[in-house]
Give the backbone structure.
Amino acid sequence: MTRYDDAAVRAPAMSLYLTEPVRGALQMGAFPLAAPWLARAPRGEGHGVLVLPGLLATDTSTRPLRRYLRGLGHTVWGWRLGRNLGPTQDILDGMPRALDLLAERTGSPVSVIGWSLGGIYARELARAHPAAIRQVITLGTPFALADPKQSRAHAAFRSRAHLHAPGWTPSWNKLAQPVPVPSTAVYSKRDGIVHWRSCIAPPSETHENVQVRCAHLGFGVDPATLWVVADRLAQPAERHAPFRPPTLLRPLFPAG
């Protein structure tokens, strides 16, 4: 796992954290304005996509993202497991079932998109069921957490530990290890919930990090994020080319 200096082992700035709800709401309001150019995103051949919500969220939070991807021709499912309270036994049992059902319905491996904690689930699904998963896309997911201080959601996660399955306690070092399928980590330096450094991994032939400018609560409606997701889903299954935004959209994707 990549190690960072002490300055990076901290939570996001308080100003980012306190403005998360407002910034997320503003991005939701601006979402319809981006619809015309989002409709021009790459489409590919269409395949199954499973979308996993973040901590304390439900499928309602991913509805705009799922609706958008369906409009591009994909068969898109929410996880249908209610509120994400952490790795409960029902959730750990239900996600592989949903994955298998969707793969059976579409007749091919499934792309899995996970928002925040949902991305950790997505990566662990890929380790356990690589043949059923085409790729993993994480949105503001702290899979490379170096210290609990990097997440302002850690206390909420720990407060529900009594609900979690006793056998699901992988170390953070293990969570940060590469997954056996192509993966894309979308992150934002404006994230007010988790430190952006905890959401990325060293680039490789099968992994890349893509920076956008949005709040943690805005990943599901942020136009730049949606474009990245559409572009990655349009990639042929047998090839994983690096993300390259169109020239006119490059300002939406800061480098470094």
Q: What stands out?
A: DSSP finds nine helices and six strands in the chain. The longest helix spans residues 89-106.
